């Protein structure tokens, strides 16, 4: 580990647990160069943001929040998806498993609280993109079919005859 760790049987554990108000293990406390506590929630920050959370300062957390908001710009707040019966809300989720592709995800999910159903934005928005592409391709194909069907016909108002 790139930080100091306290062995389980260390006698300083009781004192440090009281000082940092440790309620469970594992706990990671970030202490700055001056010896002041930066955060007692460093473990959660690492779980949510990985190494990007370093140096665990308020300024860094604000930067991460701005990056997170930018990531979701242009995404719909709510969607209906053919693979789920309820509306899915764009939600911040620290960690989840996508119920569509069965892969781990974090930060953003399209989520149904009623069913505890999570979907990666990639999975949710990919379907939308594909359905839009299908619609455009279908329209092109339909136009070509109509053009073929109309070849050799002359229409005058409501009356058409073979030319």
From TrEMBL:
<feature type="domain" description="DC1">
    <location>
        <begin position="82"/>
        <end position="124"/>
    </location>
</feature>
<keyword id="KW-0677">Repeat</keyword>
<feature type="region of interest" description="Disordered">
    <location>
        <begin position="129"/>
        <end position="150"/>
    </location>
</feature>
<dbReference type="InterPro" id="IPR004146">
    <property type="entry name" value="DC1"/>
</dbReference>
<protein>
    <submittedName>
        <fullName>Nucleoredoxin</fullName>
    </submittedName>
</protein>
<keyword id="KW-0560">Oxidoreductase</keyword>
<dbReference type="InterPro" id="IPR052259">
    <property type="entry name" value="Nucleoredoxin-like"/>
</dbReference>
<dbReference type="InterPro" id="IPR046349">
    <property type="entry name" value="C1-like_sf"/>
</dbReference>
<feature type="compositionally biased region" description="Basic and acidic residues">
    <location>
        <begin position="140"/>
        <end position="149"/>
    </location>
</feature>
<keyword id="KW-0520">NAD</keyword>
<dbReference type="Pfam" id="PF03107">
    <property type="entry name" value="C1_2"/>
</dbReference>
<dbReference type="GO" id="GO:0016491">
    <property type="term" value="F:oxidoreductase activity"/>
</dbReference>
